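Following up on my earlier thread - several people asked me to post the actual chain instead of describing it. Fair enough. Here it is, all 101 residues.
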Amino acid sequence: FITSITETAMSAAGNAGYGGSETQKRVWECLGSEKWGASSTMMMPIAQETFIYECYNEITDILWNVLKQQNSWQQLFKGLTLVEYLLNHGAERFIDDVRSR
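Reply from S.P.:
Thanks for posting it. Predicted structure:
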């Protein structure tokens, strides 16, 4: 299940590995298949990048796709943890985006 999500996202990003931009790599690193969650040190650069228009779209596209697919509870939990972190430390428009979903 997780493999298919990751492969789909990687191909969408246009590369093997995590692929795509540094922002996309960071998000996938936080949402990865490891048994432990992402640290605040991993999530802080993502929160800072929500203030950059292009990066914001990359972050939210990946995050909402992972949360919609719900293939494993671990990845869903990691996605929700990242959402909570971004609500507290990210751009204000992320709050508006969450409200509208």
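The chain has a mean pLDDT of 84. That should answer part of your original question.
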